Automatic annotation (TrEMBL):
<feature type="transmembrane region" description="Helical">
    <location>
        <begin position="140"/>
        <end position="161"/>
    </location>
</feature>
<feature type="transmembrane region" description="Helical">
    <location>
        <begin position="27"/>
        <end position="46"/>
    </location>
</feature>
<keyword id="KW-1003">Cell membrane</keyword>
<keyword id="KW-1133">Transmembrane helix</keyword>
<feature type="transmembrane region" description="Helical">
    <location>
        <begin position="58"/>
        <end position="77"/>
    </location>
</feature>
<keyword id="KW-0812">Transmembrane</keyword>
<dbReference type="GO" id="GO:0022857">
    <property type="term" value="F:transmembrane transporter activity"/>
</dbReference>
<dbReference type="InterPro" id="IPR001851">
    <property type="entry name" value="ABC_transp_permease"/>
</dbReference>
<keyword id="KW-0813">Transport</keyword>
<keyword id="KW-0472">Membrane</keyword>
<keyword id="KW-0997">Cell inner membrane</keyword>
<feature type="transmembrane region" description="Helical">
    <location>
        <begin position="240"/>
        <end position="262"/>
    </location>
</feature>
<feature type="transmembrane region" description="Helical">
    <location>
        <begin position="274"/>
        <end position="307"/>
    </location>
</feature>
<feature type="transmembrane region" description="Helical">
    <location>
        <begin position="83"/>
        <end position="109"/>
    </location>
</feature>
<feature type="transmembrane region" description="Helical">
    <location>
        <begin position="116"/>
        <end position="134"/>
    </location>
</feature>
<protein>
    <submittedName>
        <fullName>Erythritol transport system permease protein</fullName>
    </submittedName>
</protein>
<dbReference type="Pfam" id="PF02653">
    <property type="entry name" value="BPD_transp_2"/>
</dbReference>
Length: 349
């Protein structure tokens, strides 16, 4: 690293500026590169049908990554999002299949689809709030706190059905709870509903992060928590809020996945947190907090989605896919560190 730093310090200003620009655009360049590679190497990669499939996969990763970006911007991490996906999917499936038993009244209440969605989103957001409280009020490190809730949420998902799957989530006319599959499989003017949800959430998230006082507080907490507190920012509230946002995003993904499969399985969302972290980091969000953009995260999610689907179409083993994703994350972090050093040297120069 000392050799790299010395090289950066002695590099001509023009070359340093050009390299810095390339590093800032690295995610977009990577997206173009992997797209061109698979367009040449994978049969049928360039087709409308495949574009729709990739967009659905990207929507899942990107929505999760939006919440993850907010958490990472404050200097935290959320390992529980994959388990929240599984739990909220099981909650939705259980409500559609078994309803809410009320033994004291001798009845079973079957919520309609809108109520099922709202309850599931509430569950995900509540788990996010618990994560935030563990981190802020009890002083538990984010990694440990969310690792604990990862296991708790996954165990709760298994307990809801004894490890079984809630299948055939189409609802019943007499119960007025039909329409759930539309969330994951429906289209509007040929555009998948899940992609529309992503677009709406991405626009709102980007606006909140860049144009609102709350967004500025998120960056302030991640940039320098003590300075933010001294300037009047309620750090604990901001941290709790970003974990709630992450839990909400995970619940949205849980609903989309269960809707696409028309079934809820307690193992759904396994390792999804890795893709979310990868998309955020690849998109330029600094793991040390205080720096990153929602737009970069979305592009990062596209890189992960195109890479995953392209490798599948080329017949690459799932084991090698994991290796490649791991290398991509490592490369993203290394390039982020290189960008920070280069930017610092450019300012000093």
């Amino acid at each position: 690293m000392s050799t790299v730093s010395a090289t950066l310090k002695t590099a001509p200003a023009g070359n340093a500026s050009a390299l810095l620009l390339v590093l800032k655009l690295r995610t977009f360049i990577a997206l173009i590169a992997v797209t061109l590679f698979f367009a040449l190497m994978a049969p049928n990669f360039v087709s409308v049908a495949n574009a729709v499939i990739i967009s659905k996969h990207v929507a899942i990763n990107a929505i999760l990554a939006i919440g993850m970006t907010y958490v990472i911007l404050t200097g935290g991490i959320d390992l529980s999002v994959g388990s929240i996906v599984g739990l909220t999917g099981m909650v939705a499936g259980g409500l559609l299949v078994h309803g809410i038993p009320l033994p004291m009244l001798g009845v079973i209440v079957y919520p309609n689809v809108i109520e099922v969605v709202l309850i599931s989103l509430l569950v995900g957001t509540a788990i996010g709030a618990i994560n935030g409280l563990l981190v802020t009020k009890l002083g538990v490190a984010p990694f440990i706190a969310t690792l604990g809730t990862l296991y708790v949420a996954r165990g709760a998902a298994l307990l809801l059905s004894g490890g079984a799957t809630f299948s055939n989530l189409v609802g019943r006319p007499e119960l007025e709870n039909q329409g759930f599959p539309v969330i994951g499989s429906g289209t509007v003017l040929g555009v998948p509903v899940s992609v529309i949800i992503l677009i709406i959430m991405a626009l709102v998230a980007a606006y909140v992060a860049q144009r609102t006082p709350f967004g500025r507080k998120v960056y302030a907490v991640g940039g320098n928590e003590r300075a933010a507190a001294l300037s009047g920012v309620r750090v604990d509230r901001v941290k709790i809020a970003v974990y709630m946002i992450s839990g909400f995003c995970a619940a949205v993904v849980g609903l989309i996945v269960s809707s696409q499969l028309v079934a809820s399985h307690p193992a759904s969302g396994n390792t999804f947190e890795l893709n979310a972290i990868a998309a955020a980091v690849l998109g330029g969000t600094s793991l040390s907090g205080g720096r990153g953009l929602i737009g970069g995260t979305i592009i990062g999610a596209f890189v992960i989605g195109v890479l995953s689907d392209g490798l599948v179409m080329m017949g690459v083993s799932e084991f090698w896919q994991m290796v490649i994703k791991g290398l991509v994350i490592i490369a993203a972090v290394v390039l982020d560190q290189l960008q920070r050093r280069l930017a610092a040297n450019t300012r000093q120069g």
